């Protein structure tokens, strides 16, 4: 049990007394319930947990209990909570220049763009800054449509691209359904996912070949000249951490080249070290035309997203205005945080840590859990981006919770995680193991031990 009982603490990492922090947490909860409208929620059915403090891989809840953050909040705290160098950079920038309109140049924005383009593959040497991942994907689609003069866009099922209008229509999970009126120009297709193959494949080579054949046929049936872009998460995140099989993304690149379709790599979740590379697409030796990013670019300390743009697409707007923009594009506080984050990741070898932890500790540890727990149908991932697929029957792959929903068994399992000191990310029948890229070996083993105990609950539902 890793939970620190409230009576064992006098001070939180902030230096604040536990009693004072509790009082603030209670007040925050009261005001939240009275005035805050939460995303993706039925407002009367939620009970938001107050968080009093955070540090590194941990957060402290409203009772003073310490929880190991195996969710990295929304898979965005890549450098851990409260990194002092990034906080100092934000403070210094606030004292110097809090905000400036996007039509002016400023050093934080310019330096952030330089650091990002130094790490992008190929010739993606321009950056358009946004406020987050959803509007990065919105503007990337707009760029592709104006670059090609076409309208329709391809996106896979089992994907997530954001909550704004175009982005939610691009999304291939049930959050799209209430927002989809069939007029967005988005055409969905099946991507590769061998564990639940749509193509009756028996191995990764078959899955790649059949998934590419399906995509190519769909494009030909829909009309190749009608498609502006295809958008793909390099490694789908919330939808299930389905690492593409060898050759798939290279095949997508070839299809895009054949039909003049812009290839957009959505790296909002998978980028900036999460998979053990600066960008997940690097694992597959593919250069897209556009890369969208957010989350890990500054670990969410200040909202920031953006698009890395190839020379060919940037040239389209050299003498023709790009019809898009945002008041806070390249906000100085956000880009100063990005500069500090990228430098910290480089100096402290955080990307390398994520790769090592995934290959030597987290991946093997999760596979060890699968050997002991019949409720685990599959574990899959890269770096510190992993999913545990929970089932009631390994043979039939019947999920512990239905697609698009939860279940009492899944709720019980997740509640036990939190009671045991672990803050997990859960979606449908999966637990995602996505700690910060800075996570230590000891912290991973702590999380694995809690999961090992908790999964006995999921095992009790096997065969039910």
Structure, explained:
This protein is an alpha/beta fold and 464 residues long. The protein has helices spanning 18-35, 72-75, 84-96, 107-117, 133-148, 165-170, 204-222, 248-259, 311-316, 332-347, 350-372, 408-419, 441-459; strands spanning 51-55, 58-61, 66-69, 124-130, 152-156, 186-189, 227-233, 262-266, 290-293, 305-310, 376-382, 385-393, 398-399, 422-423, 425-427, 430-433. The strands form 3 sheets. Strands 4-10-9-8-7-5-6 form a 7-stranded mixed beta sheet, with helices on both faces. Strands 11, 12, 13, 15 and 16 form a 5-stranded antiparallel beta sheet that branches. A 4-stranded mixed beta sheet has the order 1-2-3-14. Helix 11 (350-372) packs parallel to helix 13. The chain is globular, with a radius of gyration of 22 Å.
